[in-house]
Amino acid sequence: MRRFINYCKESFVELTKKTTWPTWEKLQSSALLVLVTTVLLAAVLWVVDYAIQNLMTLIYTL
Residue 45's domain spans which residues? Predict the structure, then answer.
């Protein structure tokens, strides 16, 4: 149990004293970048899925 308590104390010190947290503006810009990238990737995957679906339908109807 002592090792677990020591681990928790060291983790707390590392998170509060040794970690560099981003500013609010940097955090917002990073979140916006992730959102835009996710939407673009979803759109590309939708187009690829739609194309493959139509191609497979064409192949199976021959």
Answer: 22-62
pLDDT in tens, 38-62: 999 999 999 999 999 999 999 999 8
User: Which whole number is the average pLDDT over 7-31?
Assistant: 95
What distance in Å separates the CA atoms of residue 30 and residue 27, rounded to the nearest whole number? 5
Q: What is the pLDDT of residue 20?
A: 92
Q: Is residue 16 part of a domain?
A: no
Is 5 within the bounds of a domain? no
C-alpha span between 22 and 27 (Å, rounded): 6
Q: How many domains does the chain have?
A: 1
Could you tell me the CA-to-CA distances from 28 to 23, 25, 39, 56 in Å, in that order?
9, 5, 17, 42
Q: What's the token pair of residue 16? A: 């509060």
